[in-house]
Each structure stands twice: as structure tokens, then as C-alpha cells.
Specification:
The protein is of the alpha/beta class. The protein is built from 15 helices and ten strands. An eight-stranded parallel β-barrel has the order 3-4-5-6-7-8-9-10, surrounded by six helices. Strand 7, helix 7 and strand 8 form a beta-alpha-beta unit.
Length: about 300
């Protein structure tokens, strides 16, 4: 176990573990406490962290401290800003400055917006806007789905706009369409199963001809889930909802205990495959079966590329 190296390079910084605590919250006093607790853990364990959507704080500067606390608690770590893919350039730059970000997540949440009575209905020009943001952002841009996954075709359009970092955000994690329908949504639960599963989305983007950095998120609940995603080819894995539940319900001590155990099990999974590093893990054969295999085969993706490494 002592020989297992989980370190990973991301945005020109070294992470001790290939895990990002992904975008959750901001904008309220409770959100500030949550962000502070999570940032303390990312500093201690060498993880990356993304803040929640910063739009509220951009329009109300009094709320900025609920986000900037992350950088205060983790001054040297990897921190990602977060705005909509439709955000104007000036707002995106404010978001980056607010947390002294190493990268800028642009979230794509069309399904959620359409489920919301007050949500956006016009997404015209989003690719052109992404291209502008890529060109003018002082830090790398990460295209982030929020639970519905990227197809290969969608990712290709974003690559053509200059994006080289993706956060898969596939189906399997928090379901924002279902949440909106519980609140006052318009989908009447007919779209609760909408989206591309994380494993499928990850496989599709691994076939891109562009050199991309992939973060696998969406239902990564166990260390074994993480090992599988990393073995397939993800450079990072991300978690949000499951960590938030522990923090809110049981407190910081319980979350740290869980996280410590999770990272131990992640390392154990690598030892069980005989992989001393992430690079070696991604040379191990991965067998894809069932619905995922059928889906990928129908999409013309040869699943043997993983099985016959």
C-alpha cells in the first residue's frame, strides 16, 4: 500500500489524490459554512474543489465572501470558479477573480432550466459564447454537465470552440430534473430518466480525436466506482451530493472520517489491480458488459479497446 501513488497533475498543480469536491453551493451564510468545511478538507487531503454557481454573488457583492472563503481556507490548492456557459465575459472574469481560480467551470444545465418555470428558454449562441470565454479567460475553461452527460458530438463542438477540459456530469448522480419536479417543475416526472449515463459519456469522450482532460462525475458514490472510472481513462473523479449529505447531517468530523476511508479504499482498489500509479491503472484491462456495452456498441465504439489492453 505504501507504494501506491495517487497523485495527479491538474491545471499546473499537483493533487495528492485524483478527486475533486465538485460544485455545490454559495450565496448564503449556510453555504459559506459548507464551503469553508469542504475547503479545509481539500487543503488537508490534497484535493481539488469547485464552488457552486457564482451568479448571485456577481450581482450582489455582499455575497462574495460565501465563495471567496474557499480560497482563504485553501490558498495554494486547485480551486475552480463556476458560471453558466451563457454568462457574459465580464461576469466570468469576475467569478475567476472572486476565488482566484485555477480554472473556470462553465455549466450546461439545459434540462434543468427547461424544467424550471422561471428557467431560461433561449440557448442561442452558446457555442460562440464558449469560444469567447475560452479566448478571454485567464485560466483554462472546463465544460461541465450537471447530471445529463455529454455526447461525443456535443463535446466535439465544444472542442472546436477551444475547450480541452470536460467534467462529464453524467446521469447517475443528483437528478436536477427530478428535484425541480418535486419543487414546481414542468416535466411531470416524464424526463426523470433523461441523460447519458456517466460510464457511457466517459467512453464517448475518450474516443475524441482532441487531447482532452476528463473528470468523471455523476454517481461516483463508492471508491470502486472511482477506480473503474479512472481505469477507463478519466484523469479525475468528482463527488458532491454524497459528501454534502454527510456534512450537513453528521458534521465535519464524520465527513473527514468518511473521506479518509474513501481514499484508503481508492488506494486498495489500485493495489488489487496491481497498479502502482494512475498511469499503470489505465493500462489494465476493463471489461464492459450489459446495457453500457450495448449502448457503446450501438454507437460504433469498440469496447474491446478496453478489454484487450
Amino acid at each position: 500500500m505504501a507504494d501506491i501513488d495517487l497523485s495527479s497533475d491538474f491545471l499546473s498543480k499537483k493533487l495528492a489524490h485524483p478527486l475533486i469536491i465538485n460544485a455545490i453551493t454559495g450565496g448564503t451564510d449556510e453555504a459559506r459554512r459548507i464551503n469553508r468545511s469542504l475547503a479545509m478538507l481539500t487543503r488537508k487531503y490534497g484535493l481539488a474543489m469547485a464552488v457552486g454557481s457564482q451568479t448571485l454573488a456577481i450581482h450582489d457583492p455582499a455575497l462574495r465572501h460565501t465563495f471567496s472563503i474557499v480560497r482563504e481556507e485553501n490558498p495554494h490548492g486547485v480551486i475552480l470558479a463556476n458560471v453558466s456557459a451563457l454568462s457574459p465575459v465580464d461576469e466570468a472574469l469576475q467569478a475567476v477573480d472572486m476565488v482566484q481560480a485555477d480554472g473556470l467551470q462553465l455549466h450546461f444545465n439545459v434540462a434543468q432550466e427547461l424544467a424550471m418555470p422561471e428557467g431560461d428558454r433561449d440557448f442561442t449562441g452558446v457555442i460562440d459564447n464558449v469560444a469567447r470565454l475560452v479566448e478571454q479567460s485567464p485560466v483554462p475553461v472546463i465544460a461541465k454537465e450537471v447530471g445529463f452527460g455529454f455526447s461525443r458530438e456535443a463535446a466535439e463542438k465544444l472542442c472546436e470552440a477551444g475547450v480541452r477540459n470536460f467534467d462529464i456530469g453524467g446521469k447517475g448522480g443528483t437528478n436536477f430534473v427530478a428535484i425541480e419536479d418535486q419543487r414546481q417543475g414542468l416535466f411531470a416526472h416524464e424526463f426523470d430518466d433523461w441523460g447519458i449515463p456517466t460510464a457511457v459519456s466517459l467512453a464517448e469522450l475518450l474516443t475524441l480525436e482532441y487531447p482532452v482532460h476528463l473528470t468523471a462525475t455523476g454517481g461516483i458514490r463508492t471508491a470502486l466506482d472511482g477506480v473503474k472510472a479512472l481505469a477507463m481513462g478519466a484523469q479525475l473523479i468528482g463527488m458532491a451530493g454524497s459528501l454534502l449529505k454527510i456534512l450537513v447531517n453528521d458534521g465535519e468530523t464524520a465527513l473527514e472520517k468518511y473521506l479518509n476511508g474513501y481514499l484508503y479504499r481508492l488506494k486498495a482498489g489500485m493495489l488489487l489491480t496491481g497498479a502502482v500509479s494512475l498511469e499503470k491503472l489505465q493500462q489494465k484491462p476493463v471489461i464492459i458488459l450489459g446495457e453500457t456495452a450495448s449502448w457503446l456498441t450501438a454507437r460504433g465504439i469498440d469496447i474491446n479497446r478496453w478489454a484487450r489492453r
